[in-house]
Amino acid sequence: MSWHTKRIKWGACTVGALTAAVLAVSTSPAAASGTYSGLDYVYGSGGWVGDWSNEGVLSVNTHASSNATCMWQAILWADGKLASTSDIDGIFGDKTYNATRAWQSGERLTVDGVVGKATFGRAEVRLVYSSGSYSAGQTVDFIYKGKVNWLSVKRDADGNYQFWDFVVWRKAGYNYRTCT
After folding, report:
1. Residues 21-63: pLDDT tens digits?
2. In whole numbers, what is the pLDDT of the chain averaged over residues?
3. What is the edge-to-edge ordering of all strands in the sheet holding 161-164?
4. Which of 11-15, 31-35, 114-118 is modeled with the greatest confidence?
5. How far apart are CA 4 and CA 166, in angstroms?
6. Phi and psi torsions of 142, nearest 5°
7. Which SS3 state, helix, strand or coil, does residue 41 take?
8. Which of 92, 22, 12 is nearest to 56 (CA)?
9. How many CA atoms, within 13 angstroms, populate the side-chain half-sphere of residue 69?
10. Given this model, what pLDDT does residue 1 score?
11. Which helix or strand (DSSP H or E) is residue 143 part of?
12. Which residues have a Cβ under 8 Å from the Cβ of 162 and sit 6 or more positions away?
């Protein structure tokens, strides 16, 4: 192999490596990990089917103190896995972990105590359209028909999900906690 041929091959490898590096840097680490949608809120657009199938992870280690966790706890309450609304505090502790495992077992999902895409996606099946429009910039109201209780949920004009915490509407955000 001539010196010129080796140089061309080396150049091609370098270009390939640089391209891979640029693509890796341009993808956010959270989205690349496959564990988080990368959005600040539980989000959806268009028809609601599939809205929750790409959501972030909630666990004792990820978004453990958040309004998204608070919404998940409200779902656990609606399905009878948390006994009282006082258990809805936005902190993913042992009680929420164990309730999540029980919920997953009842839904025949992988029982790991982590609310990921499959768990969120299965919960979405119990959303029932109540009123509103799917058009961009419009609000859609839903009822989460739990096995024991119902929960009011809506997707606001920006596509962010909110839940009624029995006092006020709260956005289901991943990066902050206002519910107690």
Report:
1. 333 333 332 332 334 567 899 998 877 788 888 898 999 999 9
2. 83
3. 127-132, 140-145, 150-155, 161-164, 169-171
4. 114-118
5. 74
6. -130, 165
7. strand
8. 92
9. 30
10. 54
11. strand 140-145
12. 153, 154, 155, 156, 169, 170, 171, 172
With the C-alpha atoms ordered 10, 12, 17, 18, is the resulting torsion angle positive or negative? positive
Categorise residue 33: left if φ over 0, alpha if ψ from -120 to 50, beta otherwise: alpha
- Identify which has the larger pLDDT, 4 or 38: 38
Structure tokens at 21: 């590096």
DSSP assignment of 102-141, as one string?
HHHHHTTS--SS-B-HHHHHHHHTTEEEEEE--STT--EE
Q: CB of 39 within 8 A of CB of 173?
A: no
Q: Report which residue type is found at 29.
A: P
Phi and psi, residue 18, nearest 5°: -65, -40
| DSSP 8-state class, residue 34 | T
Q: What's the CA dihedral at 32, 35, 39, 41 to 10 degrees?
A: 180
First-to-final CA distance of the chain = 71
What span, in angstroms and rounded, lies between the C-alpha atoms of 55 and 51?
8
- Helix (H/G/I), strand (E/B), else coil: 24: helix
